[in-house]
Amino acid sequence: MVEKRAFATLLEECAMSTEVAELTVDELKYIIQEAMEQKLSEMLGNPDEGLELRPQIEQRLSSSLDYVTAGGKTLSLEEITARVQAE
Q1: CA-CA distance, 57 to 55, in Å (whole number)?
Q2: Going by C-beta distance under 8 Å and a sequence separation of 6 or more, which residues neighbour residue 53?
């Protein structure tokens, strides 16, 4: 398996190499995966970037965090689904 080096470092090393054939299969897969991830991130970005939460939502999130921090129990998705289906 390819050592998890920084993508830029691996890309620089590969740029010095003139042959793709010199790469291992794992190195080539890693480069392709990282390039795809980087491109998708550039294309899709974060649709919520720059948006602000409404004060009511901030308060609900803060209350929820306080509840959990104080030892409050949360419900799993399975528990919520079971409750909704039971209604």
Answers
A1: 5
A2: 61
DSSP for 29-68? HHHHHHHHHHHHHHHH--TTTT----HHHHHHHHHHHHHH
Q: Bin 43: left if φ > 0, else alpha if -120 < ψ < 50, else beta.
A: alpha
Q: Which residues contact 50 (CB under 8 A, 6 or more apart)?
A: none
Residues 17, 7: Cα–Cα separation, whole Å: 15
pLDDT in tens, 9-45: 666 666 665 577 888 888 889 889 989 998 898 888 8
Q: What is the pTM of this model?
A: 0.39
